[in-house]
Design the sequence.
């Protein structure tokens, strides 16, 4: 490039281009800040929350420890579910495929509201979750993710954000330890706490807590048959 | 004792040496008779006073028998007592355990709440209690009883503990009952020997070695929360929980009363009680009543909360709620 050859106004235009770039950069930073703030507001625990949105699948999220307090770790789903096929691999393990393996090549059909109208796959699945349809939660743009009510993408690992849209009271109680139970320490100044996520206890397709058979019964003395027949 | 063998004034005419036992040879005057009777009574009283030493049960060592009340033990005494109990556990159960006595956390007052809308009666809490607290496996003892109640009544006296079917049933609800850690505990007033008392964090504890097993406290408790060790607890060595508290989950002797102590060996170290961790429905909420931001205070402020048998004035620190 020859220095003297460049016209002055061309140089000015280039300067203007830099300015626009810097402004864009600033805007991007502000935008990132705002989304981060919203993200942290959405997050699950009253203590300040780590801002990183996507964590490697399978690792639990944990709130950043406030000074002198231990973290509350919320278990996370391992990632997008995988469908078990009838095929076996070389180690005799089942071959599993991602949802997108099939769904990427098939257009999504919004007319399918329940399991009943599915004739190829997912037919036998128990479904009992109000009047929501498949695509209320599953993301037709990418079946390895979910979508919120406003159509924005949410990962399987962040499923609690999805559940919390409708189940506000449960989410509120969860944040106050009144839903979902816990393990570890009640006193966070002495040790950490672990909590389940929604789908640890609730099957998302049939969320009602399953019925159980009691297996343990103390045998009280007063319940025993009287030894002497009087 | 009558060692005085000088002749009494009215027997001065007898000069021969006295017999081996002086009182035998003496004529039965009023004085000697009284002396003899007094001596006999004294001996009898002394013997009676020592007699408990002769009837110490086979399974009670002299050290254990002579042990002081927990509150009167110095730190040195405690070390010896805990070491002795650990040794006894090793001998009788074949398990190496550590006995400690964690103190109440200053400023903490424990509260517990159960969500009656969530509890489905599965009984995992009772099982966790049994394992955590080294309960007698022979009767599957537990500090908790889950009552199956007919909807429409809160009368726990009509609850059933023996239900054995899939839960929850449509027309039933489930009410786990354990020690309510009352502010005004009738069991403590009933104890004739102060073997049970309330600690600063609200937990009512028992000194199992001081307890005489009269079971007055069991009768006094309106919540049926106290248990009696009719038999020496049987626990396989591999199932003995080695982390033990003197006032909580150490293996209790036969003949002692026991009760829920909010797992104080865990909770006083900041951990959740075993029954809370075990609950698969998340119905149990535990925490510090003195901390305004605690989970338990969120329940008390925001839920429809009730206590059992409120009319008795026991003021439980154990709550139930619906949502």
Sequence:
């Amino acid at each position: 490039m020859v220095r003297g050859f460049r016209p002055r106004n061309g140089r000015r235009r280039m300067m203007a281009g830099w300015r626009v770039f810097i402004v864009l950069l600033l805007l991007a930073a502000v935008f990132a800040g705002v989304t981060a703030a919203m993200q942290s507001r959405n997050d699950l625990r009253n203590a300040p929350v780590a801002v990183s949105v996507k964590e490697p699948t399978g690792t639990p999220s944990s709130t950043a420890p406030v000074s002198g307090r231990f973290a509350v770790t919320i278990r996370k789903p391992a990632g997008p579910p995988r469908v078990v096929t009838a095929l076996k691999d070389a180690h005799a393990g089942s071959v599993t495929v991602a949802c997108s393996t099939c769904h990427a090549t098939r257009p999504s059909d919004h007319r399918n509201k329940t399991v009943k109208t599915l004739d190829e796959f997912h037919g036998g699945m128990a479904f009992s979750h109000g009047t929501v349809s498949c695509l209320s939660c599953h993301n037709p743009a990418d079946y390895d993710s979910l979508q919120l009510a406003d159509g924005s993408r949410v990962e399987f690992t962040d499923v609690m954000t999805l559940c919390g849209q409708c189940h506000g009271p449960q989410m509120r109680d969860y944040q106050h330890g009144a839903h979902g139970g816990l393990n570890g320490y009640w006193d966070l100044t002495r040790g950490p706490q672990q909590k389940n996520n929604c789908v640890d206890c609730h099957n998302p397709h049939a969320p009602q807590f399953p019925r159980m058979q009691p297996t343990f019964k103390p045998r009280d003395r007063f319940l025993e048959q009287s030894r002497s027949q009087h | 004792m009558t060692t005085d063998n000088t002749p009494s004034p009215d027997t001065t005419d007898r000069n021969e040496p006295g017999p081996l036992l002086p009182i035998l040879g003496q004529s039965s005057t009023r004085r000697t008779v009284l002396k003899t009777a007094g001596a006999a009574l004294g001996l009898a009283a002394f013997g009676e006073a020592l007699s408990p030493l002769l009837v110490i049960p086979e399974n009670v060592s002299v050290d254990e028998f002579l042990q002081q009340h927990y509150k009167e033990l110095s730190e040195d005494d405690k070390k010896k007592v805990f070491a002795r109990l650990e040794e006894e556990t090793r001998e009788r159960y074949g398990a190496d355990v550590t006995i400690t006595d964690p103190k109440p956390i200053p400023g903490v007052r424990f509260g517990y709440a159960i969500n009656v809308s969530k509890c489905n009666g599965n009984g995992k809490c009772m099982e966790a209690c049994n394992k955590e607290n080294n309960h007698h496996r022979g009767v599957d003892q537990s500090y908790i009883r889950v009552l199956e109640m007919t909807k429409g009544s809160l009368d726990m006296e009509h609850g059933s503990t023996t239900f054995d079917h899939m839960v929850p049933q449509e027309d039933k609800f489930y009410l786990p009952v354990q020690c309510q850690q009352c502010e005004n505990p009738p069991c403590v007033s009933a104890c004739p020997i102060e073997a049970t008392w309330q600690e600063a964090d609200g937990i009512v504890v028992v000194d199992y070695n001081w307890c005489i097993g009269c079971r007055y406290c069991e009768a006094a408790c309106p919540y049926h929360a106290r248990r009696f060790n009719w038999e020496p607890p049987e626990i396989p060595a591999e199932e003995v929980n080695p982390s033990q508290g003197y006032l909580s989950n150490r293996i209790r002797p036969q003949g002692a009363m026991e009760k829920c102590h909010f797992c104080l060996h865990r909770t006083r170290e900041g951990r959740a009680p075993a029954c809370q961790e075990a609950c698969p429905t998340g119905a149990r909420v535990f925490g510090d009543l003195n901390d305004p931001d605690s989970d338990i205070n969120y329940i008390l402020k925001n839920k429809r909360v009730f206590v059992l048998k409120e009319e008795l004035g026991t003021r439980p620190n154990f709550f139930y709620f619906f949502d």
